[in-house]
Amino acid sequence: MDPRERVRQVFPFPLLPFRQGMVRGLAVIIPIAVTVGVLWLLFDAVIGRFARLLDVFPLIRHLPYPVLLLLSLALLVGLVYFTGVWATSYVGRRTLAWVNRVFLRIPLARAIYRASQEAFSVLSHDTRQRFRPVLVPFPQEPLWAVGLLAQNKPVLIGDRPYYYVYLPTTPSPATGWSFLVPAEKVRFLNVSVEEALRWVVSGGLLLQGTLEWHELEKLSAPDSASQP
Fold this sequence. Notes:
Blueprint: H1 3-10, H2 18-53, H3 58-61, H4 65-87, H5 90-104, H6 107-123, H7 127-130, E1 132-137, E2 144-149, E3 155-157, E4 160-168, E5 176-182, E6 187-189, H8 193-201, E7 213-214
Antiparallel strand pairs: 1-2, 1-6, 2-4, 3-4, 4-5, 6-7
Helix pairs in contact: 2-4
């Protein structure tokens, strides 16, 4: 019997050349491994620290670590939920109003507290309405970078309108740079936020075809209150 026929009997699926099989295998394994790794790091950073706080209880201290993580996750979800329920009650609203007054009277805490409140308020809305994918010169023309427009209205610096743009980094778009970019330098992309972020995460590997963009024909009225 032909050796290739024996191989086909052992392996019911067609075999690929070694190099092609390795490339396809890596294309499957790497995205899965990166996704699982990033999720595990985030899970361990948040839930793991909460689990360490439970070590003070003798009965919980001797549980296996995976069980401790699941227990910590359940307790954390329950804590967040019941905090939200409590915050809607009369006592919760009065307590939060007092907490707000306390934090807003402390100089350093006031800046952090107010910024985190405003950032969460923005992110809790629909990102497709809050953010717009754009191209901006980075670090300078003719090089361009994919960014997200953080505000639809430009601000005035002197007599010149600027847009506030967030430039996510590869492969983690959770970190990046924020710039004030002259309005005439901003190019608006005809794609969704999700697609633009996929380009960033993949390092441009998923960017194909012609990239369509347009300039904003009519600028929104600049926010005069933001003038320095």
